[in-house]
Design goal:
This protein is mainly alpha-helical and 340 residues long. 68% of the residues lie in helices and 2% in strands. The two termini are 34 Å apart.
Amino acid sequence: MIDASFSPAPDAARRPPMLHRLALFAAAMTFILIFVGGLVTSTGSGLSVPDWPLAFGKLVPQHWVGGIRFEYSHRVVAGIVSILTLTLAIWSWFAEPRRWVRNLALVAFGLVIAQALLGAINVLFLLPLPVTVAHAATAQAFFCLMVGLAMFTGPRWQAMPPVRAADHARPTLTTLTVLTTAVIYIQILIGALMRNMGAGLAIPDFPLNYGYLIPPGWSSHIAVNFAHRCDALAVTIMIVWTVARIARRHRDEPLLMRPAIGLLILLAIQITLGALTIWSRRAVLPTTAHVAIGAAVLATSFMLAIRAARLTYAGRAAQAVTARSSYPRDRTIAGNRVVS
């Protein structure tokens, strides 16, 4: 239940609304960038433009054929995201009153520069596997950070009311949502490893594995593919556990229930896309959508964890204020009457 007596911090009104809109737009463009990057991997276009930072020695390639369309589009969207992130960092530095938000915006710009360098190494050194996986890992972390900045700069952040109902379950909701987010991130890393190893069809059937629960034979490709499937089961368990906890204990909290329901819907879509990827023999559209929806699942779980932590912190702060206001001013110490 929401405590309507909780009031937002005084600096909430001083934050420019356009900064929040810029953060939202940057987060949306980052999602598009992840989709286009997945398209590059799904079509095998990572080396269609063999030089960097130019494209065949020019700013714009002369011929737009084959994988050049996907790879160069990926670079263009990445450039747009870089400019948006730089603008967000500069604007935050001058307009955002909270130092930690300004620092996060600088970290975001640092991450996008690191991501560009990893992309350059991928092209110049012919897609080394550790770098391609690091490129995917950094992209997901950057996307979560951009979603976080969109939340932190929004008017709802400081105005979030506390959770009135105490959460005495173990683990706490904050811990549970953080663990769920970590398991999803690990799953995405395993998926990136599998995708860049070319092991997506190492196990060609689904939901079984060569007709068995456990593959009858093993190789590095089969092991990575099977690990991806096992962690998908772990992700499903963690998400269902998280949503069930919120539905049971915090069903009156729309700031928790809405992303929880969204997370469950995204999970169902993601499982369906995973099956379609295998049944279609890695057709481009379901394979790319599987990458993008995976990022959406991670970002939604991350947002849920941040909201759970924020609402819990607001609840503790409200309880502390209530305790101080109700503390008796007239008390006795060692038999002497003291007025505080």
